[in-house]
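Q&A log
Question type: sequence-to-structure
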Amino acid sequence: QVQLVESGGGLVQAGGSLRLSCAASGRAFSAATMGWFRQAPGKEREFVAAVSRSGGNTVYKDSVKGRFAISRDNAKNAVYLQMNSLNPEDTAVYYCAAAMQPYSSFTSSRRQYYDYWGQGTQVTVSS
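Response status: OK
Response body:
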């Protein structure tokens, strides 16, 4: 079992930066692929980024490549999303998710693979 709690959201001007954190409880964290998803009002929840169990593999949504960076610290049971050059289209509730997959290099953009979800943190980017 993994419980996830996101933090770090807030209001920022276009061009600004935010760093989201996700704290995980449970000893299974190091065995989980971790992902960030987001959901804007009236839209489907969409993939943003994912990192493999060891942190060696990452994958990103095309529109955030070069602006966002996902990382993890298995010693602290935490995953992070550094977001730079934010624009109003990035406004959404951001969710942390954990996928309990057996492969150390596994990453995925597909929601169906993720077993545990946090409650989300709001990110609002003003123009």
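Response note: The chain has no helices and eleven strands.
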